[in-house]
Amino acid sequence: MFNKKSIFTFLQAQVAAFVGGITDYGIMILLTEVFKLHFSFSILISGTVGAVINFSINRFWVFKNQSGYSSHINSQLFKFALVVLGSISLKSLGTLIFQKAFQIDYRIGRVVTDLFVSYGFNYPLIKYWVFKIKKTDVVKSN
């Protein structure tokens, strides 16, 4: 079921998610704590910045769809933008629920929410929808 390549790809994707996520989380804290924005707005802004970083790392390192696939970048960007919109919405809602319903600090609620969103929503959609390589693309590159 799992081979070395799929495990390595998963681990690379986790590095991309971690770098994008740390950037996202750090900007959220900065905007909320220093600039006093509500955390929902901070998540929107920070999530966008983190998404740009995550997309770039995924495209050029994890799934290596940069060379020979330039015609697909618009499709990938559109699909990735939809995933990001869903992800930011889920993170904002989840963080708000943890904070309002359970009185859990937004920083902790965000980390817990991120774990569920990252593994259950982002990774499957990014791997199997955004950066899915079609068999015709593999033939073209050979």
Task: Explain what the structure shows.
The structure is a single chain. This protein has helices at residues 4-34, 39-62, 73-102, 106-130, 135-141. The chain has one domain. The chain has 142 residues and is mainly α. The model has no long low-confidence stretch (mean pLDDT 88). The chain starts with a helix and ends with a helix.
Task: Give the secondary structure arrangement, pairings included.
Layout: H1 4-34, H2 39-62, H3 73-102, H4 106-130, H5 135-141
Summarize the structure.
The protein is mostly helical and 142 residues long. Helices cover 82% and strands 0% of the residues.
Strand content: under 5%
Shape: elongated
The largest sheet, given as strand count, sense and whether it forms a barrel, is:
none
Rg, Cα atoms, Å: 16 Å
Helical segment count: 5
**In which range does the helix fraction lie?**
over 70%
Domain GtrA/DPMS transmembrane: 18-131
Subcellular location: Membrane
Keywords: Membrane, Transmembrane, Transmembrane helix
Transmembrane segments: 7-31, 37-57, 77-98
